[in-house]
Amino acid sequence: MPVRIVRLGSPRKPGEGLRIGTVRYPPRDRLTAALTVAGWSVGPSETNFLLIDFGTPERSAATAEDLLSRGLVPRTFPAGHPLAAYLRLTVRDRHENDRVIEAAGQLSSETRA
């Protein structure tokens, strides 16, 4: 699918439809795929972050603590928040994403053991 860059606010041409499209973002796609393989439930994203569903606020909080102990800082949500069972991870450069992927693999292995 071709991507057409247009100036923000420019008028649509007849028959053009909406100008909302998907531009592939390889770092996000790679991180999503790797976290999914690790068993994490990654929601769809068109942004520079991923929202991961851990099922319960307790599991989300435990995972956040483990990530923090590894120097990784997820975005958490307070108890009672509709997203309390989720963590938000920002897509970063390859090295930083690799650290998240490694941590997810280790956490998944520990959980299964």
Would you summarize the structure shown here?
By secondary structure, the protein is α+β, with helices and mostly antiparallel strands. It contains three helices and three strands. It is globular, with a radius of gyration of 17 Å.
Descriptive account of the structure:
39% of the residues lie in helices and 11% in strands. By secondary structure, the chain is α+β, with helices and mostly antiparallel strands. It has a domain at 43-112: Alpha-Beta Complex (Aspartate Aminotransferase, domain 1). The chain has a 3-stranded antiparallel sheet. Helix 1 runs parallel beside helix 3. The longest helix has 19 residues, at 94-112. The relative contact order is 0.17. The model has no long low-confidence stretch (mean pLDDT 84).
SS class: alpha+beta
- Rg over alpha carbons: 17 Å
Along the chain, the helix and strand elements come as: HEEHEH
* Main β-sheet description: 3 strands, antiparallel
CATH topology of the domain at 43-112: Aspartate Aminotransferase, domain 1
Gross CATH architecture of the domain at 43-112:
Alpha-Beta Complex
Question: Cα distance, first to last residue?
Answer: 44 Å
Low-confidence blocks of residues: none
Main sheet strand line-up = 1-2-3
Please indicate the percent range of residues in DSSP E strands (runs of 2 or more): 5-15%
Number of helices: 3
- Secondary structure tally: strands: 3
Helix content: 25-40%
Main CATH class of the domain at 43-112: Alpha Beta
CATH superfamily of the domain at 43-112: Aspartate Aminotransferase, domain 1
What shape does the CA trace take?
A: globular
What would the average pLDDT be, to the nearest integer?
84
